[in-house]
Design a protein that fits this description.
Strand content: 25-35%
Number of helices: 3
Helix content: 25-40%
Shape: globular
Number of strands: 4
Radius of gyration: 11 Å
């Protein structure tokens, strides 16, 4: 099972990123646990310069934007 973390304070973009990531995992048939990280110290530990951030299995794959479902599916497959 993949662990997907959404890094951000809970803004509209953070919620949008979570929705896109959940949809990408679902359409790819990937079982994933989704975790929201809102604590700024925890977010900064990933060297995120701007939110929202996306972490898959402890690897930062995106920050400061909302990636496409296709991008997220590709990251989930690796």
């Amino acid at each position: 099972m993949k662990t997907v973390k959404i890094l951000g304070p809970g803004c509209a973009n953070c919620k949008k990123l979570e929705a896109v990531a959940r949809e990408a995992a679902s359409t790819a048939g990937v079982e994933a646990e989704f975790v929201k990280v809102i604590d700024m110290k925890a977010i900064m530990a990933y060297d995120v310069l701007s939110t929202p951030g996306l972490v898959i299995d402890e690897k930062l794959v995106s920050s400061g934007r909302i990636p496409t479902q296709a991008e997220i599916r590709q990251w989930l497959a690796t």
